[in-house]
Design brief:
Layout (H helix, E strand, L loop, with lengths): L5 H13 L3 H13 L4 H8 L4 H14 L18 H13 L14 H12 L7 H9 L16 H20 L3 E12 L26 E9 L5 E6 L4 H14 L4 E6 L3 H4 L1 H10 L2 E5 L10 H13 L7 H14 L5 E2 L2 E2 L3
Parallel strand pairs: 1-4, 4-5
Antiparallel strand pairs: 1-2, 2-3, 6-7
Helix pairs in contact: 1-2, 2-3, 2-4, 9-11, 12-13
Length: 345
């Protein structure tokens, strides 16, 4: 059975203490009790819900959040705002950001919207359900923001695109040129969890290791003409290991010109690697812009491998798991998109 995270526990505890609705209080308590030892027995004895009902309440909460606790059979709630006021709120959400309304935030969240409605219309909602409805009517969806490095420089990225696009187009047309996008990933024995769809009433458990974490690295090279992936398992990442892997790549492409796209990792810039590239004489390096991993097509290869092979899997033997992952990479053709050029996998 999926356990609650700390944020969910705090949210439910607040609802159990502050809600004016008995059913919401009982449902909040039920979900919290199910997280405890012998929780189902406690729910039955203290609240009265049976197994199916209790698990259904929790499942709905995990899917919908706090709004799932309200009784949908109670009918339409009393309108606190006029139609004109609701339209004004929706138009504000669609056309303005919180910073335009006096808040130091770039994106809307329920607490800011609730405060803005309270300040402008003297209406304060007891639950977030009505606020969710406003976002829905404004055709907003709930998203977790993507991550971006604090040193990410969009101007630098745009300049890199302008400089690199002509090179990419030229090398794609050269028959003897091999274009490779390179990156490294680290696989550990720590289990990674991914949401899955299951029949109603099923609550999966994933075995997780309690021992120390073991690690293996994988070097990956995506051939941007063929979609073929070259992957190599290693113990670690350093300039000596990188040089050895480059020798493996040269054995695969003994006579072709290699155009290698990779980032500015220290083991790429090391003297051993630089000397080997110089002595090879037929490799051109194109560095991705700093702090911009989203530009590297190889990142999508890693994501595919984790989704297909390692998510929700107990990794008992790190070497077996890494070998399985590498084999998946080698037998799969991957699509990519780079600087407006796309391939079909």
């Amino acid at each position: 059975m999926i356990k609650l995270n700390q944020k969910q526990k705090e949210e439910l505890e607040r609802c159990a203490k502050a809600s004016n609705d008995k059913d919401e209080i009982r449902k909040s308590q039920t979900i919290l009790l199910l997280d405890e030892k012998n929780g189902l027995k406690l729910v039955k004895r203290l609240i009265g819900y049976g197994r199916t009902q209790a698990y259904t309440i929790k499942k709905r909460y995990l899917k919908e959040g706090i709004p799932s606790l309200s009784d949908k059979r109670k009918g339409k709630p009393k309108e606190l705002l006029t139609k004109q006021q609701r339209e004004e709120i929706i138009e504000t959400v669609k056309t303005k950001r919180p910073k335009d309304c006096g808040y130091e935030r770039e994106h809307w969240i329920t607490s800011i919207l609730g405060d803005w409605i309270s300040r402008n219309f003297k209406v304060k909602y007891k639950s977030k359900t009505s606020l969710y409805l406003v976002f829905k009517q404004a055709q907003f969806t709930y998203h977790k923001p993507g991550r971006v490095y604090d040193k990410h420089d969009e101007k630098e990225v745009e300049a890199w695109k302008a400089e690199t696009k002509p090179k990419l187009d030229r090398y794609l047309k050269e028959e003897n040129a091999v274009l490779l996008a390179e990156d490294e990933m680290v696989l550990t024995t720590e289990t990674t969890i991914q949401k899955v769809w299951l029949p109603e009433g099923e609550f999966p458990k994933i075995i997780c290791t309690t021992g120390g974490r073991k690690r293996r690295s994988v070097y990956g090279f995506l051939n941007m003409k063929t979609g073929e992936e070259h992957a190599f398992k290693t113990e670690f990442q350093n300039m000596y290991q990188t040089k050895d892997i480059l020798e493996e790549i040269r054995n695969i492409y003994p006579k072709q010109k290699i155009v290698l796209f990779w980032d500015n990792a220290g083991w790429h810039r090391g003297s051993v690697v630089q000397d080997w590239i110089r002595n090879d004489g037929n490799i051109e390096i194109i560095h991705f812009p700093r702090y911009a991993p989203e530009e590297n097509p190889q990142e999508h290869v890693w994501k595919s491998g984790r989704e297909k092979v390692t998510h929700n899997e107990y990794i008992e033997n790190i070497d077996v798991a890494t070998d399985t992952l590498v084999e998946y990479f080698k037998r799969t053709r991957f699509g990519y998109s780079l600087l407006g050029v796309s391939s079909v996998s």
